[in-house]
């Protein structure tokens, strides 16, 4: 039976969004050089939240110059002083975490229980973790006195706006670099609030510069001659374009791109736990996760039992107002993304896979897609090969562990994978053979600042998190 | 004693553990620094390069799955075999690079020692760059290096043996398989190294050696969808840029050309450049607060 829930919305009063925001360059907010602006909307209601500046090539140049100027002093600071700035930032994020969680939910559309319990705690933890590295770089295994690279140009996606900012800025600053960061076009607000946190923390001007804008701003940033390093998280197509842009230069590059993670369930797996892991793997953040477990590989002997349990569980997912504390699945981030998900799901049907979604009422305004699964999927189907970046699960089956590994690895991507089995030796053997940067065994979608994250193959290169994450920002 | 007519060696490629000629039937003249003819070397084609990729991919599963100790012993065996042929390589390197015998000997000795250096790394790099991660939750979490896959290398142009060994040994030490395009003007030491590798228990296909023009062969390797990484050590700036652009198509890992003193301590950079970090999580469960306090 289904329980009725009374609405339990988180209060919006905790966050005060200004009607417009400028670019954060050299410690000050300023308008775009050509005065251009664009609107950011709440994906769950299509309400305009604010108007932000569209940075021009001239603004990119100003930001890079500010970062260059700040680099000299920032890199010369004792590591222990840089550490204290980062610890301050971590603490202020903790203090303001509810405000930032609500803001993120408004701008991104993801459920408040995720921004509150996952995004924000991880953001603060990431700054706290890398703060501690700033005065210990000589002990990190990169030589006795590793040097920063200089100015880092960083471009981040809309799926975890503030968390991706933390993954980029925390290690860069700890290592002594200065940064120019461009948040995604559809989710600029939390990065602008972060600029205010930098001011509260007393961070020297120019160390962090935030440029809002679209793809042209990003292209101007990664192509700028004055930067020493590019860090990008986003689509594989754009990542390849950036790699071409940087060919023949001395600029360093790290890329964290797409994925088509296989979640492998063996016949001895604890079914209820596996179902929770599958749901978390593909419906967390509406499936808009590069490491999502978007391909379910289930051992043939338990396929019917598992799918029955999975469908039952999917029927209990609450889709709706992201600010409601009981919401499991929120809004898709943009109309554009919704169109992409819709087109790929339609291709699944057109190619002969069988579509299923629980009965669920979707709100009238905003961008919504019901949790969906496809059976009768073959490895040649687009929904088994292409990253959908939405709440759509493709189910394939296998008979032997070797077949599971072969199917899991049959992808241009290699970011994540899941293994569900009670047998330790099988888990370790399969984990060893999987060509993926992160393997979750009997769990899924776990993140931690100490744990390196990043892909094999076309999922990109370089690692974020842990000691490994420092390498991306040191001249080694 | 009358002058005996010597037996010339037919220099051949080393692909998949065998010694084929170029499928194209082409050769080119290799001369010493004064222009004296030394031999005809195979002028490899793009098809030879593709065959080498197939051989390298076929060998990857076995080589990457071999124990680190086993790989270390095999790399050490290469040093042993090279030491046994030291005089031959001294003569070849002297002719190839226009060096005195003593200077050529120093190159060969350093090349032998480089195999020993990397032989020792195979079972140590995992602990140096990997480890457990203290995540904030009830999980066992461990990061380990894993080989990237098939690596294609443009060998250094000037250092025909030491430079070559310095770029291929770290690739295979990490569990990758490699195909290398030898120095264009001085390929003979590289082709002879194939004979050493063939008698060192290196499984066929783990190292594949081509001679010819990198500018002709390498663009198709840089664009090859079954090559995971490229090392452009011996490419000039213009070629390197074009190759890096082509490599972006499947996001190969790229080591750009840079000035390297091949005689210096090589460090671990070329080893880690072709290693991926894999992180595995597993719940730990809990025995509760009543565990041992002693």
UniProtKB/TrEMBL annotation, chain A:
Residue intervals of the Aldehyde dehydrogenase domain: 31-475
InterPro entries, sorted: Ald_DH/histidinol_DH, Ald_DH_C, Ald_DH_CS_CYS, Ald_DH_N, Aldehyde_DH_dom
One Pfam short name: Aldedh
Example GO molecular function: oxidoreductase activity, acting on the aldehyde or oxo group of donors, NAD or NADP as acceptor
Family annotation (SUPFAM superfamilies): ALDH-like
Cited Gene3D superfamilies: Aldehyde Dehydrogenase, Chain A, domain 1 (3.40.605.10), Aldehyde Dehydrogenase, Chain A, domain 2 (3.40.309.10)
Key words of the record: Oxidoreductase
Family: Belongs to the aldehyde dehydrogenase family.
Protein name, as recorded: Aldehyde dehydrogenase
Species name: Streptomyces cinnamoneus (Streptoverticillium cinnamoneum)
TrEMBL record, chain B:
Keywords: Oxidoreductase
One Gene Ontology term of the molecular function aspect: oxidoreductase activity
UniProt key word Oxidoreductase: yes
Domain Aldehyde dehydrogenase: 23-255
Pfam families linked: Aldedh
Record bears the keyword Oxidoreductase: yes
Protein name per Swiss-Prot or TrEMBL: Aldehyde dehydrogenase
Taxonomic source organism: Streptomyces cinnamoneus (Streptoverticillium cinnamoneum)
